[in-house]
Write a structure and sequence with these properties.
- This protein is α+β, with helices and mostly antiparallel strands.
- The chain folds into two domains: 124 residues, HAD superfamily/HAD-like (Rossmann fold); 72 residues, Alpha-Beta Plaits (2-Layer Sandwich), CATH 3.30.70.
- Helix content is 37%, strand content 17%.
- It has nine helices and nine strands.
- The chain has a five-stranded mixed sheet with strand order 1-2-3-4-5, sandwiched between helices. Strands 6-7-9-8 form a four-stranded antiparallel sheet, covered by helices on one side.
- Helix 5 links the parallel strand 2 and strand 3.
- Helix 7 packs antiparallel against helix 8.
- The protein starts with a helix and ends with a helix.
């Protein structure tokens, strides 16, 4: 199976070390895609001294696993899981997965115990020893969470759309909704989300509702 390019890029970095973590030979299709990638020796060579530990920070959907029509259908291949396990077990790379899914959900999908998981776009962090870190959400906003979901379910969930409850954030999905309803669904979903004090962001065939705090995957990566 073709590796998603996000992890492929990271594996190229790892293979540039003196003692590669994995053994991987690109096929013709891989090679053509690699030709369009930056010259890592030129741009990153000084940061990749042999023996230094690397940080490998990955997303799940679209990186470790192919995107699908429904989040529940997404599966990580055993080849990919073994590659990630080898990297984590090697001691040569610090590995974390930062996902838009809830943190327990993404850990269940990947199933490795010795890496760090971060969910809800960085709002939740779960360490291998079981320690958790959750970004604080204002009480008045958090208190509106269930009301927001109920309102969305009553008004905009129809003709194939649905709400994914991720405990501290939501995603309103309309990928499989009838096209004639999508524009109005998305517009109204954004209005409802914002009326309860959450930030509404457009995503892949969806609208995300996130707490109104200054936090994202990039800040989560720095924190981790």
């Amino acid at each position: 199976a073709m590796m998603p390019m996000g992890l492929l890029s990271c594996l190229i970095l790892l293979n540039s070390c003196a003692n590669p973590v994995i053994s991987w030979q690109p096929n013709d299709q891989d090679a053509s895609e690699m030709a369009a990638l930056p010259d890592y020796d030129q741009y990153l060579g000084e940061y990749l001294a042999p023996g230094e530990k690397l940080a490998l920070l990955l997303d799940y959907d679209g990186t470790l696993a192919e995107l699908t029509s429904h989040p529940n259908l997404t599966q990580m291949s055993e080849e990919m899981r073994q590659a990630l396990r080898n990297i984590a077990d090697s001691g040569k790379a610090f590995v974390a997965v930062i996902s838009g899914r809830d943190v327990d959900g993404v850990k269940e999908k990947i199933g490795l115990e010795n890496i760090i998981y971060s969910g809800n776009h960085g709002l939740e962090v779960l360490y291998p020893n079981g320690t958790r870190h959750n970004q604080g959400i204002p009480n008045d906003v958090a208190g509106n969470f269930d009301k927001m979901i109920d309102h969305l379910n009553r008004e905009v969930v129809h003709h194939g759309s649905w709400v994914e409850n991720k405990r501290v954030s939501i995603t309103f999905h309309f990928r499989e909704a009838e096209q004639q309803y999508v524009a109005e669904m998305a517009r109204r979903a954004k209005e409802i989300i914002e009326s309860y004090g959450y930030r509404a962001n457009e995503a892949h065939a969806s609208v995300e509702g996130k707490p109104p705090i200054q936090w994202n995957k990039g800040l989560a990566a720095e924190y981790i």
